[in-house]
From TrEMBL:
<dbReference type="Pfam" id="PF08241">
    <property type="entry name" value="Methyltransf_11"/>
</dbReference>
<feature type="domain" description="Methyltransferase type 11">
    <location>
        <begin position="41"/>
        <end position="135"/>
    </location>
</feature>
<dbReference type="GO" id="GO:0008757">
    <property type="term" value="F:S-adenosylmethionine-dependent methyltransferase activity"/>
</dbReference>
<dbReference type="InterPro" id="IPR029063">
    <property type="entry name" value="SAM-dependent_MTases_sf"/>
</dbReference>
<keyword id="KW-0489">Methyltransferase</keyword>
<protein>
    <submittedName>
        <fullName>SAM-dependent methyltransferase</fullName>
    </submittedName>
</protein>
<keyword id="KW-0808">Transferase</keyword>
<dbReference type="GO" id="GO:0032259">
    <property type="term" value="P:methylation"/>
</dbReference>
<dbReference type="InterPro" id="IPR013216">
    <property type="entry name" value="Methyltransf_11"/>
</dbReference>
Amino acid sequence: MTSSFNVHDAAGYEQLMGRWSQKLAPLFIDFVGLADGEKILDVGCGTGSLTFALARTADLGEIVAIDYSPVFVEEAIRRNTDPHITIRQADACALPFEDGMFDRALALLVLHFVPEAGKAVAEMRRVARPGGVVAAAVWDHLGGMPGMRMMVDTVAALSEGGRQLRGRYCFQPMMQPGEMKRTFVEQELVDVTQTQLMIRMDYQNFDDYWAPIAAGEGPLGKYVATLDAVERARTDAAVRDAYEAGRPDGPRSFANVAWACRGIVP
């Protein structure tokens, strides 16, 4: 398996992360650049946040979107109404395309869930033409996602299992400053540039924040699903207390930073 992201239900993913990747996609596209008529590969398309944003941004010749998860592929296909978009299941580390097929190979919020992230970058470079662009963005789990760190720091204070979760979560691939840029350079991309992109995650209340995690979505939900009834109740109460922070339940807003990197195929 080439992805460590677990997904059970597309709607749950949308509440957990899809709605935020939709906000991040336009910023990523501005950083990456696009030109009319280009052929684009979207690696790890999820439910289509970047795929459909690309189609809205430019008059592209073709968009090919792939994802490892059949749940994501099925949902993205269901949503698609654009004949210029093709969506299929595939492995980011073994892309089923010939060399140099695409003008740009892009991956939004994917590489940190690929254990062999360097291999995925190599594959993106392979399928992009000379002069083409390879670009990716990942969340900064350690220092740039206070809303999620609120949860992992809370569970880390409760148990050894929580501390282990925090260690895994904060140090996934490509997340440390300069790490993704070094990987792009190692894969012999040129004119490599790294930047930061920021959005805000706005929640209506604690249930809006907690429901998809409580349902087992994503890496944090996967941890919660392992807890017994007593630990689950203790965790729910502790995370609620952290969210509310001594005030009545209601809206909360968290800044969230992603690292973005772009390179050119020589």
